[in-house]
Amino acid sequence: MQDNQPSQTEISEDMLIDLSEFFKVFGDSTRIQLLYALMDGEKCVNELAEQINATQSAVSHQLRILKNARLVKFRREGKAMLYELCDGHIRSILDTGMEHLSE
Questions:
Q1: What is d(CA 54, CA 97) in angstroms, rounded to the nearest whole number?
Q2: For the chain, which domains are there?
Q3: Residue 68, SS3?
Q4: Taking the model in full, what pTM does it have?
């Protein structure tokens, strides 16, 4: 265990619930596809919909969930909303998951 992480006995019930909710977000393949698509940099809904072969409505819905989970952020450019990963932790989480599956 790393020094800056709480021990198992120090983790509150609220923190466990939050962690559980965080990992639930990764339980949808469309959201995973969107996260991978955003690893290349920011994209608008149209680009993401085309890249993952989904409707703009479906992509917008999943992006809202990812945004609420603080996995993606957005900025407005004119009328377009551009989305990107919040930080490098998201890439690390996905990389770790893929590494685990490859073992």
A1: 24
A2: 12-102 (1.10.10.10)
A3: helix
A4: 0.85
